[in-house]
Design a protein that fits this description.
The protein contains seven helices and no strands. It is mostly helical. About 20% of the residues are buried. Keywords: Signal.
Length: about 160
């Protein structure tokens, strides 16, 4: 039974990565995580983070700063954030090299040496993205704005702990 579970898990990882590749890089050849070089894994991770940062800043500006009434655009941005964020666990499943890092990576070694703490922070981030999306789906702009602010603060804290400068 164990080999079947491993096969299903590997297939799920490959499927998620293929979706990330198509989402981020357009029509390119689908690859599994095992087929990517450490530098390619880092590049995909950075692409996801850049897209998250851009979308999150726009959502925060619209919902928190401008107090938008364009609920449809805010919902669209929140859904995109959830989709992008869900790629992160797959892209952080292993260090980019045996030493845990490649030159281009901004991930601090603590991502792997303190992996329990990092995974907890990442899961909290994913939960917050889901809550923002949920608040906006229910039209609760004020609650979404509050959660966006909480998330922005947690992003800064996580980056201080797990990102090199």
């Amino acid at each position: 039974m164990q080999p079947l579970c491993q096969t299903l898990k590997s297939s799920l990882v490959a499927l998620l990565l293929m979706a990330a590749v198509f989402l981020l890089a357009g029509p390119v050849q689908a690859q599994t995580l095992a087929e990517l070089s450490p530098s390619e894994i880092v590049a995909k991770r950075q692409q996801v983070f850049e897209a998250i940062e851009k979308t999150f800043k726009q959502l925060r500006f619209n919902v928190v700063n401008q107090r938008t009434t364009d609920l449809q655009q805010a919902q669209s941005d929140a859904q995109r954030l959830v989709q992008l964020s869900n790629f992160l666990p797959v892209l952080f499943t292993q260090p980019a090299t045996a030493a845990g890092r490649v030159q281009e990576s901004h991930a601090a070694p603590e991502v792997w040496t303190e992996s329990t703490h990092f995974k907890r922070e990442l899961n909290e981030f994913l939960d917050r993205m889901g809550r923002i999306d949920e608040e906006l789906r229910f039209g609760s702009l004020n609650q979404a704005a509050d959660m966006i602010d909480v998330t922005a603060k947690s992003c800064r804290q996580c980056h201080r702990l797990f990102k090199t400068r």
